[in-house]
Design brief:
This protein is 36% helix and 16% strand. The protein is globular, with a radius of gyration of 18 Å.
Length: 285
């Protein structure tokens, strides 16, 4: 069984529509794929409608969080998407994305980059606008060669010259909200240092004590040493270990299923969840 628990569609900052994503996941030989768009579940219905036979969909979202001034992402799986408190928090985060992106465009223009809001809005389309869309605009303008190269202190990384903060949820509150909605929480790419400052292990230990279920270890932004350290930390704290592609379509070089989660860990995630259940494919539309 091949399980990829972290992907994005055009509902946030991926380039595949939700329907395209699940079809591509099946073509890549996956048995299970999680759709975890940023702060939104808007792509779930389309993905479910198109879900090919033999592929199971795990519904989820990647929640924007911040602790002690450090930005972090929390993967939330199989929660009730209509639970009022979690829904209200997701909407609060999502509604702050447009003014934040406009602010980054303004800062880039002050730095002499001829980016426009119209360009970023075109790239985002119907998706939840975010830094990757601004980064793609920088690629289009020839300012940086790749989207990843835009996430530096020179440009869009936390504290970078064009960085603008947005509303982000306290991770302890995120854990509480997701748990109350029947979901399971996994700290996404916790050692991705090239994205900016990372959360210290002491804070991860505090999150584990507060109910965090797992940490994402096998990820394109973690080198061999980081993965070994995180596996040791997970064992020490009794956390689940996941692996995922963090697929964004053509916006990143990683492929669906390039990193995967142990089927036994996937089984444990489904056992812990009470807010929703994995959706088996019936042939798609």
């Amino acid at each position: 069984m091949r399980v990829d628990l972290h992907t994005h569609s055009t509902a946030s900052d991926g380039t595949d529509s939700p329907a395209e994503l699940v079809r591509n996941a099946a073509a890549a030989g996956l048995d299970v794929v999680a759709l975890t768009d940023h702060d939104t579940t808007r792509g779930h219905a389309e993905a479910i409608t198109a879900l090919p036979e033999g592929l199971t969909l795990v519904t989820g979202a990647e929640l924007s969080c911040r602790i002690d001034g450090v930005s972090m992402h929390m993967l939330a799986y199989l929660f009730d998407p209509e639970e009022p408190a979690l829904l209200a928090e997701r909407e609060l985060v999502r509604d702050d994305r447009v003014p934040r992106a406009r602010g980054m465009v303004a800062r880039l223009r002050e730095l002499g980059v001829p980016v426009t809001w119209e360009q970023v809005a075109r790239i985002a389309g119907d998706g939840s606008v975010g830094r990757p869309h601004v980064a793609t605009a920088l690629v289009e303008l020839g300012v940086v060669p790749t989207v990843s190269d835009a996430f530096t202190e020179d440009w869009l990384a936390d504290g970078g010259r064009a960085y603008v903060a947005k509303h982000e949820t306290d991770p302890f509150e995120a854990i509480r909200l997701v748990k109350s909605a029947g979901g399971v929480t996994v700290f996404a790419h916790p050692a991705a240092a090239k994205r900016g400052r990372t959360v210290p292990d002491s804070a991860i230990a505090e999150m584990a004590a507060a109910g965090l279920d797992g940490i994402e270890v096998d990820h394109m932004d973690h080198d061999v040493d980081a993965r070994a350290r995180l596996r040791g930390l997970a064992k020490e704290l009794g956390l689940l270990v996941t692996g995922s592609s963090d697929y964004h379509g053509s916006r990143k070089t990683v492929s669906l299923g390039e990193y995967t989660t142990d089927p036994e860990v996937y089984g444990e995630i489904t056992r812990r969840a009470t807010g929703a259940f994995p959706v088996p494919g019936t042939g798609g539309a």
